[in-house]
Amino acid sequence: MNYDLIIKNAEIITAADRYHGDIAVKEGKILAIGQDLVGDGAEQIIDAAGRWVTPGGVDAHCHLDQPSTDGSVGADDFFTGTRSAVCGGTTTVIPFAMQFKGQSLAEAVADYHKRAGDKACIDYSFHVIITDATPEVVAEIPEMVAKGYTSFKIYMTYEAMKLSDSHILDVLEATRECGAMAMIHAENDDCITWLTKRLKAEGKTSPRYHARAHSVIGEREATHRAISLAELVDVPVLIVHVSSRAAIEQIYLARGEGVNIFSETCPQYLFLTAEDLGIDDDFHGAKCICSPPPRDAKSQQAVWTALANGTFSIFSSDHCPFNYDETGKLLHGEGASFDKVPNGIAGLETRLPLLMSEGVRKKRISPERFVDLTSTQPARLYGLYPQKGTISVGADADLVIWDFSETKVIRNEDLHSAADFTPYEGMSLNAWPAITLSHGKVLWQDGVFNSDSGKGNFLRAKAPFPVPTAE
């Protein structure tokens, strides 16, 4: 057999298995997996002896070239964002097509396709953000699903984006009827507004007070309410970027009662705390403003535990980078009130190395659990499996070969996002992708990005859940 590529002597790790073998690739797909595969005519052979090989990461929560409502401009477009992703071992991304009020979902998706253009280095799909759930917009959801847009994000906060409980119920009912996924940003908007008003009245406006305004109590209440609304409609939902022990407990209890709830967390809740938002006189804490904010050490430990015990379904970056300048974090000037600072931090490139180094290598989670959280479950829940998210015959040859031989210190100058800082600056990791392949082509190898190889395709997602039938 004349293969295009054979990866020899690999320690292959999937969400279910770990075994030694060879992987053969033909025309971008995995054609064979076995022992001592013969491929004298193979165009390329990579010897992975002593190295782990995992499926390419699927980052199911990232923001690339997303239009804003406040005039801020994200640092990454589809080229710089996907370049950053692949250099950190991620080979599929799912960013967000955002609907503005008065706009149809079809218009939002069409605009986002124009933004993506032909810039992406790796494959991508779209979630759709619904900010204006009129009857006409809700009626569009089945058509969107039929066209391959099968996940919809709902906000419970942000004035320009939040939906009322009644509108959330309308969207959940529509997703139930066509087997789609609803993702919910669960924070209580009235709690945030009430606390913000009082903090500002007391002159407490520095970045550190962002964490106070976005309280654990508000996240807990909104998480409970989101679960209750899903239970009322009897539809699965996914709670995104869960940050606190209190919210985790709500999810754990609901799942124990048989409610079909999925959940996600992100690196900032493992490696940052509220202390990273700085002190009163330090505006640089704005670099770590995101919502929900990083919490305390107890919540940090609760997030680790929930990753290990299966409470969390997926681990995403929530990559939403803003530069520390007038287009981003300094949009309203240095010293602006915390509520005027654009929310978001970079994380596409560092997501997998952080979890591999500090999770797997320090034995907090297993290698199989790592793959499940970062690749397999995101692909399943967003309708891309088994094309993505696994190492199996017929799957896309999106693969990561890991290097554990050297300690790597995270420096923003070494990363490939267009962001001008990383919140993880100076962290030492003992894991980083040595080689990343997309469709069997090497895009990243030994610290060098191959700009000539990458050409990503838009992926039409399948509906992740069965459509209920009338009883």
Structure description:
This protein has 12 helices and 21 strands. With 471 residues, the protein is an alpha/beta fold. The strands form 4 sheets. Strands 1, 2, 3, 4, 5, 16, 19, 20 and 21 form a 9-stranded mixed sheet that branches. Strand 1 and strand 2 form a beta hairpin. The chain starts with a strand and ends in a 22-residue tail after the last strand.
In short:
This protein has 471 residues and is of the alpha/beta class.
What are the defining features of this structure?
471 residues, alpha/beta, nine-stranded mixed β-sheet, seven-stranded parallel β-sheet, 12 helices, 29% helix
Number of strands: 21
Described by strand count, sense and barrel closure, the largest sheet is:
9 strands, mixed
Structural classification: alpha/beta
End-to-end CA span:
52 Å
User: Residue ranges: pLDDT <50 for 5 or more in a row?
Assistant: none
Q: Please state the average pLDDT score.
A: 96
User: Based on CA inertia axes, which overall geometry fits?
Assistant: globular
Chain-wise SSE layout:
Blueprint: E1 5-13, E2 18-26, E3 29-34, E4 44-47, E5 52-55, E6 57-59, H1 78-87, E7 90-93, E8 96-98, H2 105-116, E9 123-124, E10 127-129, H3 135-146, E11 151-155, H4 165-178, E12 181-185, H5 189-201, H6 209-213, H7 216-233, E13 237-239, H8 245-256, E14 261-265, H9 268-271, H10 297-309, E15 314-315, H11 351-360, H12 367-381, E16 399-403, E17 408-409, E18 428-429, E19 432-438, E20 441-445, E21 448-449
Parallel strand pairs: 1-4, 1-5, 6-7, 7-9, 8-10, 10-11, 11-12, 12-13, 13-14, 14-15
Antiparallel strand pairs: 1-2, 2-3, 5-16, 16-19, 17-18, 19-20, 20-21
Helix pairs in contact: 3-4, 4-7, 7-8
